[in-house]
Amino acid sequence: MSEPLVIGIESSCDETGVALVRGRELLANEVASSVEQHVRFGGVVPEVASRAHLQAMVPTLRRACEKAGVDLSEVDAIAVTAGPGLMGALVVGLSAAKALAVALDKPLYGLNHLVGHIAVDLLDHGPLPPRFGALLVSGGHTSLLVVDDITCRVTEVGSTIDDAAGEAYDKVARVLGMGYPGGPVIDAAAADGDPRAIAFPRGLTSPRDLQAHRFDFSFSGLKTAVSRWVETQRRDGRAVPVADVAASFQEAVADVLTAKAMDLCAHHELDAILLGGGVAANSRLRGLLEERATAQGVAVRRPRPGLCTDNGAMMAALGVEVVKAGHRPSSLAIGANSGLPVSTVLV
Ligand code: KG4
Ligand code: ZN
Known about the structure:
- By secondary structure, the chain is an alpha/beta fold.
- The chain is built from twelve helices and ten strands.
- The protein has helices at 35-38, 46-68, 87-104, 113-119, 121-125, 165-175, 182-190, 207-213, 220-235, 242-267, 283-296, 313-324, and strands at residues 5-10, 15-22, 25-33, 77-83, 108-112, 132-137, 142-149, 153-159, 272-276, 299-301.
- The strands form two sheets. The chain has a five-stranded mixed sheet, with helices on both faces.
- It is globular and about 65 Å long.
- The two termini are 25 Å apart.
- The site of zinc ion has 6 residues, from helix 4.
């Protein structure tokens, strides 16, 4: 059989993504973002995001088909994010996918957004190792995974007990008056700062915390520490060294994430680690993971930064694997699941 042609639809947060993937070849990846509409609120407003998805879905779908030079009738399967994410936003993509499945008489696969963040690397670096660790860092999730089979065996070994790393980025950017989303602006500002200027806390790394939370994360203390430090500077009439704060905060995040990812590899005897999710676009996280993994003899995989943030390609890439593995398609009756656990790859 020739490689399946899968259309991927993503609408879990503020990006409407539609992509076409044949096998491991990315034919088109169109993303319409509503981020501009959320900037003045300093975070995604669910109702606004849902309406934007509704407006963007059909034009984005058309653009993807045009770019790929593909007619919808040629598509073998429809892959769509079924969760986790914002309920109203998910429903738009899922409804579009169901409509396509009915109209084209093609199978529907309701898939896990978080697993899509891992699968997308297939498009950049080819087949996945038989067993590997994954550090998943997005706007809403921060987890350590062991992946035995991307289509059906994904085990969460640890996760954040409070905020996700991306949330901490967004909050710190707000405190520094740098706008939204925080990740890219802090990443850029940190380039001119000293990562050792301020010693911010590394959550859940004390010997006592490690006993109960060896593979878990906590970023709420770090977020508060940065806010307090900045407030104290301002109260005392001192200028806030924005680049140093950004660099020191970023170092604390990257240090904890990579240290725990490496510990995961050592403990579970994994010789490959894959970095995924929006925060995986972060330059320091990418660099430090590479450095530490190389020192430990672990291979690192990470998608190009442009495929780290939400898009349709990640869902299409995962869809291809699920189709090739021969899993049963989803029922047309499936619903969106805003709290879908990462271990449920296919709904
Ligand atoms: O995976 P994603 O696109 O959406 C969710 O599924 O949540 O992740 C979005 C998050 C945001 O918090 C954003 O600030 C962060 O990814 N992000 C970054 C960078 N680019 C995006 N964080 C740090 N450094 C970056 N370069
Ligand atoms: Zn995401």
